[in-house]
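just leaving the lab so this will be short. below you get a single protein, a line of residues and a line of whole numbers that encode the local backbone shape. id like you to explain what the token line says about the fold, in plain words if possible. thanks a lot i owe you, the record is right below:

…
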Amino acid sequence: MMRLPFFSIALPKAFRETEHGKLMYENLKKNKDRLTTPFDIHATLMDVLHLPKDLTTVQDTRNRSLSLFRPIPEQRTCAQAGVEPHWCTCLNWQDAMKEPGDRAVAGKLAQAVVEVINRQLKDVFHLCSRLSLKELIEAKKLMPNEDLLKYKNVKDKDGFVPDLSGNTKAAFAHYQIKLRTEPGDAIYEVTLFYDFKQNEVHIDLASISHPNKFGDAPHCIISQNYFLATYCVCHDKV
């Protein structure tokens, strides 16, 4: 059975240009990035039959069916939407430092982040210090829920009873890593992609942020390369 069946809605241009239509169309576009289910089609069709007056109030998640033409809560969960765990394709942030194995992987990923930063600095090591990992502060991983990975098939012809005897292993995960480097005690936060099977780390430099102040630590590079100021600790500041 399909977990994510395709469903699309096309609103006539003439309707989108009406007062109601503009709001409903904007809500529809926003809701495409929120958790919706086939049950929401019922409330949506009811709004077609009886145009609602209020198109701005966020709907109550206690209702199983929410209209796609009105605001759906950003934090709506599978449980609120009446979706059983084995059908839920939403991902969960999990602590990646609780178990020794997870912590070892997180440490390896933190080290990979520092190596990527140093590669950016390699041409200016005569100005900037080579960084090293001082501390892994926090690590989280974005993973499918356990019952989704266990799902193998259905036991009944109607598809209501799941067979959770599967042993699928996640092949990849997104990680959020927070670390501290030295010298300079800079804190970096980064979201990265880790492929377990290929043992490959993919880091987007644009996703690396430096939330604490770096003061004049990068004064020697800031006029030459502002981008590297995020990473540079000048030798005279060590």
Notes: The mean pLDDT is 84. The longest strand covers residues 132-144. Strands lie at 91-95, 132-144, 153-154, 162-163, 172-182, 187-195, 200-203.
